[in-house]
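call fold(seq) -> tokens
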Amino acid sequence: MSPHNVILCKDCIEGDGSRLFATLPDGTVKLVSILNTDTLYGPRVHYPSRPNDNYAVLKPGEVLNAEGTNALPGVVDSIYPPQTGGIANGRYSFQAEFESFSERPKVITSLRRRWRKYGDLYTEGLVADPIPIQIAIPDNPRPCR
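ret:
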């Protein structure tokens, strides 16, 4: 934890992949697949002279709760192995990963210098807590269109 304020761009958080874990009958968890769920929107052209409403300036110990949508791409079908995107019936955990700030290093260095009196610009990845999910394939699925 930083002893300084941390600046987090609320509008810059983008999906950067996800992990799908299977919960085995003995309760252990095994990585099944790393799923690419990029939702990149591209870098900004202009940054304000100081953090505005698009940025959260968090004091040490504060938390930012944010909501968003992330997809779980894959084929729910027991005949495809997980390496090819197949997901069979079972208990899983879905863990999303996000980029907090995708920008060129030169821009990041410039912003950090400009905003340092407000806090430290956070540019590392974020990993959500795993979400338990149950996948059940219907006995008679409808054909894909």
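The chain is about 10% helix and 35% strand.
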